[in-house]
Amino acid sequence: MTTDQPNGLPIHNGVPIPNDAPPKPRPTTSSTSLTARLRLPTTYTTLPSQCLSAYQSFVRHNSSQVTSIESALRSLTYLLPGTRVADTPLTSESLHTFLSLLTAYNTHLLASPPYTPQRRYERFWEAGSTVYARCAALLRTVQYTQLLLEMLAKRAGEKTRWRVVVLLEVVKAVCRLCMGRVSGSRPVIATGVGDERTERGVDARHAEDAEAEDGAPGVAGEGEGGWKMPRTGMRLPSLPCASSSSTEPIATGESVADFLTSRAITADEIKSARRLVRRLHTLPGQLAELLYVLQPALYALALQRCGADRRDWRPWLLGLSMEMAARQLGRADVEDSVVGGARGLSGVEREEMKRRGWGLAWWGMRGAFYENVTGGVVRGVAGRLKGKPLLDMVGVVVEDYDFLWGEYYFPTATL
């Protein structure tokens, strides 16, 4: 107990306390970690991070082997979509989805400059906007998992299946609209797995490592790996042998013109990432992009309204007309607003227009057109190939994919 003396000094348990005495320390609440409060061994909590670090190190040091394994496993999933074994489509698609997500993660680990112009454009907007980066990540994830989600939803009934299909298409449309808004009314460029694993990126890095291992240090001269500069130690690649005739074979298998062309800098490589895709200033261009983005969602909604009638032509005609209108409006916008027309577009935009043009061919495998026209042709071809040596395997694979194209929506989706 503390009291006060007449001279003003406090007394604690009969002992006077001087004024210059240090203050009594206050009890502090001990901040213990969750691991200590749960009394978990530290080894168990650090094991996941250690395994992840070990996996990342393995992928970075064995990129070529990892890529070969991914390709082999993905090729195996392409051969297992059929109905000969119970739940084979679901099992095959589950494996394919897992491999797609794993490949996307490995691609992120192995990404290294120089990037392709398309990937450089995407990385520019992902680094500058959190909304763009999150929408792009969500869009890729939905594209990888959409068929698997449709298969799982179909087990709960057709109504649940079409609700899931429409929901996924709406999510993808919203993501594309947000990405186009953030980028300043620019078209959304389609992405795929492995875009960052360019030959000039990962493969060039391994080539440099191989040259560093093959080249003997301290030797300046001309050898199999080229000529090593004595001052800097850098190694120049060997030039191909020039021949008098362009058709005459040369020692390196590459002509001088091809050698120089492969190392020339293109216009897309020196452009800033923002200028690789133009802004849509005119109304036809903006309307074309809006129709192209909303077309899958409206087509899926029309299929949901038609229900079990797969031979109804109305959803198919609606979707095809919207995509054709978007393509015509886009062409008109290019001819009016771009100097030189399609030739004035960047390589990224030309590749996107070409991809969208080939996407029109998938309308021959969708909806009423497949049920009334294409499906009979596919089944007839599969039937003729059956029972013939070597061709029987091809017929079985065609028949299996006929099951996917006829029963599910997303195998023929292009967005």
Please mark out the parts with pLDDT under 50 across 5 or more consecutive residues, or reply none.
Answer: 198-224, 244-251
In one word, what is the shape?
A: globular
Number of helices: 15
Radius of gyration: 31 Å
What percent of the residues sit in helical stretches (DSSP H or I)?
Answer: 55-70%
Number of strands: 6
Structural class: mainly alpha
Strand proportion, as a percent range, falls in under 5%
Mean pLDDT: 79
Largest sheet: 3 strands, antiparallel
Distance between the termini: 78 Å
Strand order in the largest sheet:
1-2-3
Family: Belongs to the peroxin-16 family.
GO cellular component, one term: peroxisomal membrane
Protein name: Peroxisomal membrane protein PEX16
Keywords: Peroxisome, Peroxisome biogenesis
What are the main properties of this structure?
6 strands, single chain, 3-stranded antiparallel beta sheet, 60% helix
Structural summary, described in words:
By secondary structure, this protein is mainly α. It has 15 helices and 6 strands. The protein has a 3-stranded antiparallel beta sheet with strand order 1-2-3, with no helix packed on it. A 3-stranded antiparallel beta sheet has the order 4-5-6, with no helix packed on it. The radius of gyration is 31 Å and the shape is globular. 18% of the residues are buried.
